[in-house]
Design goal:
By secondary structure, this protein is α/β, with parallel strands linked by helices. The protein has 22 helices and 19 strands.
Length: 570
């Protein structure tokens, strides 16, 4: 049985090797169609030939040319379905028995071996199979048609349709739970947003679905007036599926005027009551208004909606509201209503203790801190393994109010962020403690990356260790974020930083002693958490920054550091 991977590619030199190696165990040959528009090719073809040659796989390469007219001048493909049909036709001519496809910036979820694809093809259960597509950073895991018996395309029964957001017509697709594709680009694609709009607008022909996609592309670009206009066009057209109406309404909730958000969320739920997302948004809106009892009622109602089966799952499905996000939201609301949140919180962690504790000190920036928490949980590979602890000051009234919905500590003012982090660490349950403040950006799958570094270093979570990551700016030996095992925390006197510091130079001591004691795992070349600090020109100096970085704090911290660390050599 010969399996061929059919791909279309533009200038993908930054991605294609990673993709090919990820899917290599499942294919015998590669059908590559270069769809470049009027661009000159880069090294994509050469890399594909080199990688496949080294893996003992045959390669066929051809080029798709855009149609005549304005599309001939575009620096990108003009019709994704046409290009993909060309790659499948080439695969048939290569003698493929089965064909599957991936985009160049796709990889495989490591927990779902791609080798399973061969067993599925050989099983004879169906002629076409769909698999979950984990679109990193969005919370979405739609089912996409991926694997086909070649006879479907050789006979003309099946073909790709749609100039953009293409899909297969003429094939009955069986949904499978594994393996899972992951959309994981690591290089920017500046043309993609304008490209999609350009193709869609040329190909509208009055179609409601195409109008929806124009709406969606404008929403992604932050052009809300245009997005709203095209959303109205799509909603006014006959034939728009309910799941598309649902997403237009949710985009109004996410990006439109706050005064209209609740009405749109209610419309979304009416159009598509089989899904939870709209109720989740309504719950969050009621929380913002301080209507905690109403919000709790809505949240409980949301939890009674079962997850749609994989074969009927709409593309707008957001996995978190059917797993950790459901219980996290319920626990937050139980706290706000003065009720025990323990069972819900336990369920948020899959009934197990969390592995990682994000210890988040914040002052005077509760909205920024909320966005930060959302970023880190959304970017985690396994959010259920992560707990967040807010650490706020007694005199920070607004942050104290918001913190009530989370696991949190309140500390006496005047001790600076060090006092807050130390207090948070005291109630943490995870075996890996991560110091967090409002101005850090996570990398995708940051939790899995940190745990992988421990494994690579031959360390367990029960051993003393500190992980060094890059902040995207510094190149010296300062450990810009304290990431340490509970065992190291115990060795430090059950403190993240010495209580003799308020802020400045506490990290100098943490770094000096970690390097001195030989417990640092240096992952700075492999993991970057970008620090959006004014010192690097990436943020605006506010009162919290000014207090923490004052001359007095510097002087006080430096004096404390020299007294406590006489062995330090500059």
């Amino acid at each position: 049985m010969k399996i061929t991977l059919a791909m279309i590619a533009g200038r993908e030199a930054a991605h294609i090797e990673t993709c090919l190696r990820a899917f290599a165990p499942a294919f015998d040959s590669l059908s590559l169609v270069l769809a470049l528009g009027n661009q000159e090719p880069d090294e994509t073809e050469e890399i594909a030939r080199r990688v496949c040659g080294g893996l003992g796989k045959t390669v066929f390469v051809s080029r798709y040319e855009n149609g005549v007219g304005e599309a001939s001048e575009w620096p990108h493909v003009d019709d994704f379905a046409a290009a993909r049909n060309a790659s499948f036709k080439q695969a048939v001519s290569m003698g493929a028995h089965w064909i599957f496809w991936a985009d160049c910036d796709d990889v495989v979820d490591s927990r779902t071996p791609i080798e399973e694809l061969r067993e599925i093809a050989a099983s004879g259960k169906a002629d076409a199979y769909g698999f979950a597509y984990d679109v990193v950073g969005t919370g979405k895991r739609p089912i996409r048609e991926r694997l086909f018996s070649a006879h479907l395309f050789a006979s003309g029964k099946a073909k790709w349709s749609g100039a953009i957001h293409e899909n297969v017509v003429g094939a009955k697709v069986m949904a499978m739970a594994s393996p899972v594709w992951r959309h994981s680009p690591h290089a920017t694609k500046p043309l993609s947003k304008d490209r999609n709009l350009r193709i869609l607008k040329r190909d509208l022909h009055g179609a409601a679905i195409q109008a929806f996609y124009v709406h969606q592309e404008h929403a992604i670009k932050g052009e809300w007036d245009e997005a709203s206009r095209w959303g109205d066009v799509a909603l006014a057209m006959p034939g728009l599926p309910d799941s598309f109406r649902y997403e237009i309404a949710l985009n109004h909730v996410r990006k439109g005027p706050r005064s209209e958000a609740e009405a749109w969320a209610a419309k979304a739920f009416a159009w598509f009551p089989e899904c939870r997302e709209a109720l989740a948004f309504l719950t969050l809106l009621r929380m913002e208004e301080g209507r905690f009892a109403d919000a709790l009622t809505l949240c409980k109602r949301m939890t009674h909606i079962p997850a749609p089966p994989a074969e009927a799952r709409p593309w707008c499905y957001e996995a978190r509201w059917y797993s950790w996000g459901e219980y996290d939201l319920l626990a937050r609301l139980l706290r706000l209503n003065g009720q025990p949140a323990g069972e819900a919180q336990s369920n948020a962690h899959g009934g197990r203790a969390p592995t990682i504790s994000l210890i988040h000190a914040t002052r005077g920036r509760h909205n920024t801190a909320l966005a930060c928490r959302e970023r880190w949980l959304n970017a985690a590979a396994d959010p259920a393994s992560v707990e967040t602890i807010w650490c706020v000051d007694e005199d920070d009234r607004e942050s104290k109010i918001v913190a009530r919905q989370f696991s949190h500590v309140v500390v006496a003012p005047g001790g600076g962020c060090v006092r807050a982090w130390n207090a948070g660490a005291q109630i943490a349950k995870g075996k890996l403690l991560v110091q967090l403040s409002d101005d850090w950006l996570p990398s995708e799958g940051w939790d899995r990356a940190l745990l992988a570094e421990l494994s690579l270093a031959g360390k367990s979570l029960d051993e003393p260790a500190v992980i060094a990551v890059s902040d995207g700016a510094r190149t010296d030996s300062l450990l810009c974020m304290a990431i340490l095992t509970r065992a190291r925390w115990e060795n430090q006197g059950r403190e993240m930083f010495s209580a003799e510091y308020k802020s400045m130079h506490s990290d100098n001591e943490f770094s000096h002693r970690a390097w001195r004691d030989g417990v640092v795992i240096d992952a700075r070349k492999r993991i970057t958490f970008e620090h959006m600090h004014p010192a690097f020109g990436k943020g605006i100096m506010d009162t919290t920054y000014s207090e923490s970085n004052s001359k007095e704090r510097y002087s006080e911290g430096e004096s404390t550091f020299k007294r406590r660390n006489p062995d330090f050599k500059i």
